[in-house]
Amino acid sequence: MKSWVIAVLAIATSWNAVALGASSWTEPSALNKLEGIFWSWRCIPSESHGIFQARVHNRRSEALSQYFFALALDGASSPASDSWTQVSIQPYEWAYVGAIRISSCSESAFIWYAPAQ
Amino acid sequence: MQARVNIILLIFGGLVLALAGCKSQVSSCELSVGEHKTLAEKPALISSAFTVDLVCKDRSGKVLLNEPALDLHETDFKLFENGAPVSPYESRHSFFNSPQRFRYNTLLLLDLSGSVHASDLGVLKAAADSFIRTLIASDPAHHHVALYAFDGRPQIHQIADFSNQPDSLTELLNAIQCPGPYCRDESTNLNGAIINGLGILEMTADQHLIPIQVEHLVVFTDGTDRSGFFSDQDVRTMLRQVPDHTYLYTVGLGAEIDQAALRAIGRDGAEMAYETSQLMDGFTKIAKRIERQSKRYYRLNYCSPRRSGQHRLRIDVSRQIEFGGKKLQASGSFETGFDASGFQSGCALESAERRGEL
Description:
- The structure holds 2 protein chains of 2 kinds.
- By secondary structure, chain A is mostly beta strands.
- Helices cover 4% and strands 48% of the residues of chain A.
- Chain B folds into 2 domains: 9-87 and 304-345, no CATH class; 102-294, Rossmann fold (3-Layer(aba) Sandwich), CATH 3.40.50.
- Chain B is 29% helix and 35% strand.
- In chain B, a hairpin with a 2-residue loop joins strand 14 and strand 15.
- The longest helix of chain B is centred in the middle third of the chain and has 18 residues, at 121-138.
């Protein structure tokens, strides 16, 4: 799996963003390397840590077929092998990536993607 | 136009019986009306979805009955704009909603961890099949069901996407083999499954171009969380985020379940099966609960005579309830605002219905 990864999408969270509303989904302004595919995230504080969720949106006019997506903590070399979700996303539809627990909502998490080929 | 409403005869009889059981104590009944969503669309269409529950109390204020009000007719409703009755000559009402405008999404999450597929998979499939068929048959146009599986892995896995075709859902359900793609890890990521299931339901609601949706999450498990990806507190945190129109149910099987935890998660319905022979009954009860919850929802469309500005819409509901030879009048209302900017003539409910827009 790791050898297929062609890019890592960095998601920088901040307390300012969280303060806008814990349940709100946010689209990061970070460079989008997978053209036409947008992702959004949110982090919900829970006890002393955070629950980080992400989903991706296909804004291409054609389907995005057979891609893997996964979430990983900041500092992880790659997501665990069983963390990957294989999705095909129709044009203008969403796909849910998953959720991970992070040490706090001020930390970063990463969405990884890889073509399934 | 002949207005169409959901008329449920059987349940009203049940309510009367329930009331009869506590007739010496009931002091008053009211219809508790809660707004779900109200939309104002050009040329002048107002669509409102709301819940109605029958709440009866004794003289001390203690709630004796709190059940969905299932049998309301169009004549039980009255509309007011800015406090004045909406003229039937200037507007038309309709209680009809096409599937393009209103939908119930139910996500059934099946525990396929090691303990389940060892002995109970066939019974579980049969019970889930019955659940799907019971639920969709109750309102085939509006109920859509998706099937997901979880085991000890971080992700949940789609067995079948949302569909109102029971045959296609059960075909995919019956194709499950364990061990197999849905059941590879004998551990149980129950907490992660609930968090991810809620995430998928929320995304589904955001994704569909259907103005008004209601979500149901049904979780089947025979154990407790073993994977430790998320804590019980994390689940409680997520449950606090869940909107009012998302309902949660659990079905537990066997001796390893934490009944208290499953009842807390299944805040809208929890069924415990002590052996596999009780699974079918548990799933059927949850399907019936969803059916009842779904029928709390009423959808009203009308063409407003307003042509500009901000306005207040009030919907009054009143119904006479027979109880032990006595008649009680139960009533309630809710009020909301709408913007009539740009409204004009040309709103016709009949043609909108024909086009599938209502």
